[in-house]
Amino acid sequence: MRTRHLAIGLVTMLALLAVIGPLVTGDPYAAGLDGARLSAPSWQHLLGTDQFGRDVLARLGHGARLSLGIATIAIGIAACLGLLLGVVAGGTHGPVAAILSRGIDLALALPRVVVLLVLVAVLGTLGPIGLGLILGATGWPTIARLTRGEAQAIRHAPHVTAARALGATPFRRLMREVLPGTLPPVMVAATLGVADVLLLEAGLSFLGIGIRPPTPTWGGMLLEAQPYLASAPWLLLAPAVALITATAAATIGGDVLRSRFRMAQE
Amino acid sequence: MPCCPATARMASWVVRRLAGAVLVSIIGIAVLVALVHLLPGDPLTAIVGDRALDPASRRVMEHDLGIGRPLPVVLMSFFRDALQGDLGHSLAERRPVTAILADRLGPTMLLGGLTLLIDFTLGVLLGVWSALHPRTRAARLLDSLTLATYTVPGFVIGLVLIWGFAVHWQWFPPALIADPLLPTDASTWTVLIDRLKHLVLPVTTMVLATIAVPLRQQRSAIVGTMSQPWVTAARARGVATRRVIWQHLWRPALTPVISLLGLWLPMVVAGAVFVETVFAYPGIGALLANATAQRDIPVVIGAGVVLVVVVQLGSLVADVLYRIVDPVQREPV
C-alpha cells in the first residue's frame, strides 16, 4: 500500500514539474543579465543558476517535458512492436512464427547500447522525436520475448480451444483470445522499460549525442555540470535527483502493477 | 570408463554451442553493417564537409563506408577483410581501425575483469551473508544501498564520486588511466601505484552500478535452497554449520548466479560506454562514444564488433560453466 502511494506521489511530482514547471519558472534559455552566474540556490532561483546565469529549475522543468515525452514515444513504439511480433511468434505456428522467433532471439543478442550508437552515428543529429523513435526501435526485443512466452502459454488454454470449437478464425483467436492475455505482463515490462529509456536518453545526451545544447535535458545538464563540480555542485545534484526520481517512479510503478495483476489472478 | 560418454557428450555440446555463438555473432555484425548501408544519412559529407579530398583517400573512405555498392557485396567484402584482420580505416584519425581497437582493448579488459572479479566475489559473499542474516539492520541497509546504486545510472555515480573523491578531497585522479606527467624513468613501483590510483574510481563506479544483480540473485538462491530437504537432513545429521552453509547451501545456489553471467555482461558493456566516458578512460566503451560523436563509422562498427563478440563469448562461457557446475544439466534427461 505504501509503495503504491510512493509511486503515485513521485509520478505526480514529475508530472507537475513537466506540465506546470515551465509555466511558472520562466525561460530556460534566458541568460542572467544581472550577473548571477553559478549562483547557489536562493529564493530568486530556487535551484540556483548555471554558468550562463540560466535558471536551473526552469531548465529542469523543460528537461522533464523532453525526457518524459521521449520516453513515452519510445516505450509506445517498443511495446507495440514487441507485442505484435511476440504474439505472432508465440501464438501461431509455422514458418512465419519460426522466423520471427529466431529474429527476436537474434535481436536480444545485440547489446542495445551498441545498436543505438550505430544508429546515432549513421543518422547524425536527432531531434526529440527521432531520439524517441530509435529508442523505441531498439527496445522491442525484450517485450517481444516476454509476449512470445505468454502467448505460447495461452495458445493452448481452454478458452482458446473453446473459441476454436465455436469456429473462430485463427486471426480472431490470436487477436481476441491470445493477445489480451499477454497484456498485463507487457504493461509491467513497459512500465519498467520506461526507466531504461530514461537512462539511455539521459546517457546519450550526457555523451553529447542525444538532444544537444542549448536545449535543456537532464542528461545534457549533467554534461554541462561536469566542469563546475567544485564550484557549483547543485548543477550536478538537480538533474541527478530528477533522473533518479523518474527511474525510481517507473521501477516502483512496475512493481506495483505486477503485484496488482498477481492479486487479480489469485 | 563411465566418464567417457559423458565427456564426449559435453564436448559435442560445447562445439554445437560454439557454432551457435559464432553464427549469432556473424549475423549480428551483418545487421550492424547493414544498418549503416540501408539508413539515410551521408556520413562521408558529415565528416569531410567542404574540404577538398584527394581521390585516393576518397576511394578508401567510400570503400570503408560501402558507398555506391549493393548490400550483399558490402557484406561479403566486410567479412572477407575482417577475416584478414582489416576493419577499415578511421575517418577521424588516419589509422587502421584494428590498431585503434588493439590500443583500447587492454584497458577495457582490465576494467571489466576487475569489475567481474569484485562483483562475483564480494557480491556473492554479501549475498550469502544477507541471506543468512535476514531482518538484521545491516542486511536491510545493504538492501537499500544496493537498490539505490542499481537505480542510479553509472555515469551519475561516476560524477558524484569524482565530485567527492577527486575534486573535493583529491584522493584519486578524476580521469585517464595514467598520469601523463609521470617521468618516463619512473620506477615500476611508482607506475604501478599510479595505475592503481587511476583505476579506483572507475572500478568502484562500475561495481556500484552492477553489484546488486549478482548479490540479489545469490541471496534469493540461498533463501530458496534453505528449505530444501537435504539441508534439513544435513543439519539433522549434525553437520557443522559452516559445512552446511558452504557445501549444502552455497554449492547448489551457485548455479543461478553463474547463469546470470550471460545477462550481466551486456549490462557491463552498456555501463562501460558511459562510465569510461565520464573518466576519460581509454577503453572500447569511450572509443565507441567518441567515435559516435565524430560519426567515425568504421570505428563505431569496429567497436560494435568487439562488444557483440564479447557478449556472445560471455554467454557461451556462462552456459559451459553452468553445465559443468550443475550435475542435473550434464545427465541426459
Descriptors:
heterodimer, A: mainly alpha, 11 helices, B: 333 residues, globular
Q: If you had to describe this structure to a student in words, what would you say it looks like?
A:
The complex is a heterodimer of chains A (266) and B (333). Chain A is mostly helical and 266 residues long. Helix content of chain A is 74%, strand content 0%. Chain A is built from eleven helices and no strands. In chain A, helix 1 (2-19) packs across helix 11 (234-265), helix 3 (56-91) packs antiparallel against helix 4 (95-109) and helix 3 packs parallel to helix 6 (128-137). The longest helix of chain A has 37 residues, at 170-206. The mean pLDDT of chain A is 83. Chain B contains 15 helices and no strands. With 333 residues, chain B is mainly alpha-helical. Chain B has helices at residues 3-38, 43-48, 55-65, 71-83, 97-132, 137-151, 154-168, 188-210, 212-226, 229-236, 241-253, 255-278, 284-294, 297-325, 327-330. Chain B is 78% helix and 0% strand. The model of chain B has no long low-confidence stretch (mean pLDDT 84). The two termini of chain B are 21 Å apart. Classes of the chains: A mainly alpha (266), B mainly alpha (333). Chain A binds chain B through residues 105-106, 109-115, 117-124, 195, 199, 202-203, 206-209, 222, 225-226, 229-230, 233, 236, 240, 243-244, 247-248, 251, and chain B through 24, 27-28, 31-32, 35-36, 39-41, 43, 46, 151-153, 155-156, 159-160, 162-163, 167-168, 266, 269-270, 273-274, 277, 288-289, 291-293, 295-297, 300-301, 303-304, 307-308, 311-312, 315.
| Beta-strand residue fraction of chain B | under 5%
**Mean pLDDT of chain B, rounded to whole units?**
84
Give the structural class of chain B: mainly alpha
Unreliable runs of chain B: none
**How much helical structure, as a percent, in the residues of chain A?**
over 70%
Strand content of chain A: under 5%
Tally of separate helices of chain A:
11
End-to-end separation of chain B: 21 Å
* Total number of beta strands of chain A: 0
**Gross geometry of chain A:** elongated
Supply the helix-strand structural class of chain A: mainly alpha
Instruction: Report mean pLDDT of chain A, rounded to a whole number.
Output: 83
Of all protein chain pairs, which has the greatest interface, and how many residues does each chain bring to it?
A: A-B, 38 and 46 residues
- What is the strand tally of chain B? 0
**Multimeric state:** heterodimer
Residue stretches of chain A low in confidence (pLDDT < 50, at least 5 long) are none
Radius of gyration of chain A from CA coordinates = 22 Å
| Biggest sheet character of chain B | none
SSE order of chain A in H/E notation?
HHHHHHHHHHH
The major beta sheet of chain A can be summarized as: none
Distance between the termini of chain A: 18 Å
